[in-house]
Write a structure and sequence with these properties.
It is a single chain. By secondary structure, this protein is mainly beta. 9% of the residues lie in helices and 33% in strands. Among the domains are: 146 residues, no CATH class; 97 residues, no CATH class. The protein is built from five helices and 39 strands. The chain starts with 10 loop residues before the first helix and ends in a 19-residue tail after the last strand. 45% of the residues are buried.
C-alpha cells in the first residue's frame, strides 16, 4: 500500500520550520479563520545554493487531537540533473477552535530527516526549507483535517489485505517468440461483413474461420494455425476477409497489431524472411522470457551472482544455491532451472549478494527491487508522490458512461460498496443517491448512475478501503486534495497506473498480483492485470522510472521513460490526462 497521503489543506505544515528546536507557541490574537491565507500549489520548488529542491504533497501519519505527525518527500536536483530523494518527518501540537472550525499549529519538531549517506548537502537542504517556511501560515481547516483522518483509517483497512504473489506461468524460449494473452477463456464474436469471428478478450487481432483455423496479425502480415494453441506459420497472401476484419479493428481503436515497433517511426519487421516468431497463447497469468539462443551467463563483479546477457529480461543464478532467479513485475521468482517450477521470493529474502550488485553494473537497475538498497528506498519515496493539477469544475465534463446493456452491480468484498461491472469506466455506488466515477484522474459525482455527473469536491473515505483483491482498487490512488469555490485540486500517485508499494518488502511492484474477472458480453472490458506483458519496472536516480513491456531480444522490448509529468494512463484503459486550468 502507498504511504498515507494528506490533502492540500495540510500543505502549510510541511513547510513549517524544519528544525530540532521547537518553535514558540503561537496564541491566536484573532479568530483563526481571519488568519487563513491562500494555500500554495504543489509541488513547491526552492533553491538551496546550486540545488533545486522540490517539496511534494505532505502526508499525514497520525493525529490524536493534540499531537500531529506527518512527513513530506523532498527531491534535490543538482546541476548535473541527478535527483536524490529524501523524507522529512516532523510533528506539531494543535490548538482546535471548534467554533470557527480551524486548527492552529505550533511547537514544530523535526523527528527525522532521511537522505542517502551520499547526500552530503542534506543539512543545507533542510536549512533552505526551514528558511522558506518562516512566513508560511500555520492554520488548517478542521473539516479537511478530519476528512484526511477518515481516509487514513480507510487506507489502513485496505492495507490489511496483502498483495498476491502467486507465480504466473513462466515460459522461457531460446528462439524469437511472442506471447498472446487472452483475458480468460477465448470469447468469439462475429466480425460484421465476414464469416470470421474475433477473440474479443485480447488486444491482438486474433480471428477464427468456420473450419476452426486461427489467424493472428503479426508484423506486416498474418500467421495461421489449425487451432488456437497450434503451431502458427506465415500466411501468404491474406484473404480479403482478413484485411476487412483488420480495417474494422483499426477503426475500433482497440487493437494491438503486434507490429514489433518500439516507436511508430521504426520499420516494421517482416514475415517474409526469418526469423519468424513462435507464438504462445495464454489464458491464465503468464510471462514469456526470450533469450537470443541458449542463455549466455556472465558473472557480476564482487558477487556470487551470474546474469544472462542475451535477453532484455532479468535472469540471475546464485552460485551458492545454484537456483535461477527472475524479476517480473517487480517480483522475484526462483527455480532450480528455467523450466521451473517457480516459487515467489520476497525482495527481503533474496541472497545477500543482490544488494551488493555494483552501481556501475549493467544490472544495477534491479536493485530498486531489492529491499534496503538506496534505489529501493528512493523508488518507494517516488511511488508516493502525487501528480496534481488544479481544475475548474465548471470547465471539466465527464464523458457519458458506456454500458454493455443495463448497468449491473457487483459488491466489493469487505466494504458496503458496489461497482458497475459492465462499463469500461470505474463507477462506484456508495448508496442509492451517491455515485462516484473516475475519468482522466479526476473524481466525478452523481445522484444516479445515469448522471448528470459533476466534478467531485470530496470523496467518501469508505472508497479508500477498497482492497487489492478488487479490480477497483486502483482508483484509491486518485484523490481530491483541496476544493475552494470553482477550483478543485486533484491528483493521483503511481498506483493509479499499476505501480504500488509492497507493504511486506517495502519495494515497488507492478500490479496487485490478483487475477481479476473481466466483463465479457457483446464487448470486452478488461480489468487491471499484473502479468502477460513482460512488465519490467525499473527505477534509478539517473533515469527515474522506466517501464519495459516485453522480455526478449528482438521485438516488444521497448522501454518507455516515465517522468512526473506523465498522463494518467493505466495500460488497460483509454488515454487519460489531467486537465490544468
Amino acid at each position: 500500500m502507498p504511504q498515507l497521503r494528506l490533502f492540500t489543506a495540510f500543505l502549510m505544515l510541511c513547510l513549517a520550520p524544519l528544525s530540532g528546536v521547537q518553535a514558540a507557541p503561537e496564541q491566536p490574537a484573532q479568530p483563526l479563520a481571519n488568519q487563513v491565507t491562500a494555500s500554495p500549489s504543489w509541488p513547491q520548488v526552492l533553491a538551496a545554493g546550486d540545488t533545486k529542491l522540490t517539496i511534494y504533497q505532505p502526508q499525514l501519519d497520525s493525529w490524536d487531537g493534540y499531537t500531529l505527525n506527518a512527513r513530506t518527500a523532498v527531491e534535490a536536483t543538482g546541476t548535473d540533473g541527478k535527483s536524490t530523494y529524501g523524507i522529512v518527518q516532523f510533528s506539531a501540537h494543535t490548538l482546535v477552535d471548534k467554533a470557527t472550525r480551524w486548527v492552529a499549529l505550533d511547537q514544530y519538531t523535526i523527528t527525522k530527516a532521511d537522505f542517502p549517506d551520499s547526500a552530503t548537502k542534506a543539512d543545507s537542504w533542510v536549512a533552505a526549507v526551514k528558511q522558506d517556511a518562516e512566513n508560511r501560515t500555520k492554520t488548517i481547516s478542521l473539516d479537511q483535517l478530519e476528512a484526511a483522518l477518515g481516509v487514513i483509517t480507510a487506507e489502513q483497512q485496505s492495507g490489511s489485505e496483502p498483495l498476491e504473489n502467486t507465480p504466473p506461468t513462466i515460459i522461457s524460449s531460446e528462439v524469437p517468440a511472442l506471447l498472446v494473452y487472452i483475458d480468460g477463456e477465448p470469447a468469439y464474436r462475429p466480425v460484421d461483413g465476414t464469416s470470421l469471428q474475433r477473440v474479443i478478450n485480447t488486444r491482438p487481432l486474433l480471428l477464427k474461420d468456420a473450419q476452426g483455423k486461427h489467424y493472428l496479425h503479426v508484423f506486416d502480415g498474418w500467421m495461421v494455425a489449425d487451432n488456437l494453441g497450434g503451431q502458427y506459420a506465415p500466411l501468404h497472401p491474406p484473404s480479403a476477409q482478413l484485411e476487412k476484419a483488420k480495417k474494422a479493428a483499426i477503426q475500433g481503436r482497440q487493437v494491438d497489431l503486434l507490429t514489433g515497433q518500439s516507436d511508430p517511426k521504426d520499420k516494421i519487421p517482416t514475415l517474409a524472411k526469418p526469423p519468424i516468431p513462435q507464438i504462445y497463447i495464454a489464458t491464465v497469468p503468464t510471462e514469456l522470457i526470450v533469450t537470443d539462443g541458449p542463455p549466455q551467463w556472465q558473472p557480476i563483479q564482487n558477487t556470487k551472482l551470474l546474469y544472462v546477457t542475451n535477453t532484455t529480461g532479468h535472469i540471475f543464478k546464485e552460485i551458492g544455491d545454484q537456483d535461477s532467479y527472475v524479476l517480473i513485475s517487480g517480483r522475484w521468482f526462483r527455480a532450480g532451472d528455467m523450466k521451473g517450477p517457480w516459487t515467489f521470493v520476497g525482495a527481503d529474502k533474496l541472497p545477500a549478494d543482490f544488494a551488493n550488485i555494483p552501481d556501475d553494473s549493467p544490472k544495477e537497475n534491479v536493485k530498486a527491487s531489492v529491499t534496503g538498497t538506496p534505489q529501493a528506498k528512493e523508488a518507494a519515496i517516488a511511488a508516493t508522490i502525487a501528480q496534481t493539477s488544479a481544475i475548474k469544475k465548471s470547465q471539466v465534463k465527464m464523458s457519458k458512461p458506456a454500458f454493455d446493456g443495463e448497468p449491473q452491480l457487483k459488491a466489493i468484498k469487505g466494504t458496503p460498496l458496489q461497482y458497475v461491472v459492465n462499463s469500461p469506466m470505474p463507477i462506484i455506488m456508495v448508496d442509492a443517491q451517491s455515485w462516484y466515477a473516475v475519468e482522466n484522474g479526476i473524481w466525478f459525482v452523481a445522484t444516479s448512475v445515469q448522471g448528470p455527473w459533476t466534478v467531485a469536491s470530496s470523496v467518501p473515505a469508505v472508497i479508500y478501503s477498497i482492497p487489492p483483491s478488487s479490480p477497483m482498487h486502483y482508483v484509491t490512488y486518485v484523490k481530491v486534495y483541496e476544493a475552494s469555490g470553482d477550483t478543485v485540486v486533484v491528483g493521483y500517485t503511481p498506483g493509479y497506473q499499476g505501480s504500488t508499494l509492497d507493504p511486506d518488502s517495502g519495494v515497488v511492484v507492478y500490479g496487485t498480483g490478483y487475477p481479476y474477472t473481466p466483463w465479457v458480453g457483446s464487448v470486452w472490458y478488461g480489468p487491471p492485470v499484473t502479468y502477460g506483458f513482460g512488465v519490467a519496472i525499473r527505477y534509478t536516480p539517473w533515469t527515474g522510472w522506466t517501464f519495459g513491456f516485453g522480455f526478449g531480444w528482438s521485438w516488444g522490448g521497448s522501454t518507455v521513460g516515465v517522468g512526473w509529468g506523465w498522463g494518467a494512463y493505466p495500460w488497460w484503459g483509454n488515454y487519460l490526462s489531467l486537465i490544468p486550468i
